[in-house]
Amino acid sequence: MIDYLIGVDGGGSGTRVRLARADGVELAQGSAGPSGLAHGMAPAWAAVGAAAAQAFGAAGLAPPALARVAIGLGLAGVHNKQWAASFIEQQPGYAAVALESDAFTTLLGAHAGRAGAIVAIGTGSVGEALRRDGSRHEVGGWGFPAGDEAGGAWIGMRAMNHAQQAVDGRAAPNAFAAAVIAACGGGRDAMQTWLANANQTAYAQLARLALEHAGSDAGAHAIVAEAGRQVALIAHALDPSLPIALCGGLAAPLRPYLPPALLARVVAAEGDSAAGGLRLIQAHLKEHVPC
After folding, report:
1. pLDDT digits (tens, 9 = 90+) for 217-266
2. How many CB atoms lie under 10 A from the CB of residue 46?
3. How confident is the model at residue 13 (pLDDT cuts 50, 70, 90)?
4. Angle, nearest 10°, between helix axes 152-168 and 218-237?
5. Contact yes or no for 107/116 (Cβ under 8 A)
């Protein structure tokens, strides 16, 4: 018997969940570390479990047996079919599991399951549309480091390159470069060590420095302005007849750098990716569990 539903939004920077009763009434939320599949299957399930346990605690409930819980997950990295299959194979005993990309659950949450489009900008970036005929269209989402334009890791990589040029003398030293250098250990040797260990999450943490200095530094402004242009390119490639929501942790900070033509299409998101995860598992149960 399924007593609880969990909706999951899992990416390269963190995991957020929404806990609901089987009838869909939401009870609480929880969060934990990254659960993007690039971090590994076991760490992803561990992060999901930690966030779920926090949500049950916030609801004043002891975590139940997993056989009483159905879970819908929107995770970064699902486009790698081998990763997705391995993740499902290692599921720890939930009564039902529905897995989709975090882009699709973001879309389901943003438009409450109706037709619409989103550009999600967090550690990475992706655009997705659900057309009125039920078909789907995805733009971007190719992953770090080759894609994910405008995402936090993409911005952070460019911030690091700016700092490298300042250290070398190829660019004039300034407050923006100094902030990045300090965040990466303070000096060439420390930066080399940082680079040897950096993943997309580490690069994404540098994005805030570009945003903080964009109003006073030409280099930082150029980086975030290009990020805004990339968001507009993603949006333009999606169905222009659909309302579009901008989602993810960088959507609001990048808004001042978006072209007016894009802003004219933008509507407020009705829910987040974790809410979309709840919609995903509810639809899965309707389709696969007999009444």
Report:
1. 999 999 999 999 999 999 999 988 899 999 988 999 999 999 998 999 89
2. 17
3. confident
4. 150
5. yes
Paired tokens of 94:
């939930």
- The C-alpha atoms of residue 17 and residue 19 are separated, in whole angstroms, by 7
Average pLDDT along the chain: 93
Q: End-to-end CA distance of the chain, in Å? A: 12
What 3 state SS string does the chain have? Answer: CCCEEEEEEECCCCEEEEEEECCCCEEEEEEECCCCHHHCHHHHHHHHHHHHHHHHHHCCCCCCCHHHEEEEEEECCCCCHHHHHHHHHCCCCCCEEEEEEHHHHHHHHHCCCCCEEEEEECCCEEEEEECCCCCEEEEECCCCCCCCCCCHHHHHHHHHHHHHHHHHCCCCCCHHHHHHHHHCCCCHHHHHHHHHHCCHHHHHCCHHHHHHHCCCCHHHHHHHHHHHHHHHHHHHHCCCCCCEEEECCCHHHHHHHCCHHHHCCECCCCCCHHHHHHHHHHHHHHHHCCC
CA dihedral 290, 284, 18, 271 (to 10 degrees): -130
- Look at the block and give the residue holding tokens 């007593």: 3
Task: Measure the CA angle with vertex 99, ends 11 and 132; round to 5°.
Answer: 100
N residues, the chain: 291
> What is the C-alpha separation between 230 and 156, in angstroms, rounded?
15
Structure-token pair, residue 186: 């303070």
pLDDT of residue 64: 95
Give residue 287's pLDDT band: very low, low, confident or very high (50, 70, 90): confident
pLDDT digits (tens, 9 = 90+) for 124-144: 899 999 999 989 999 998 888
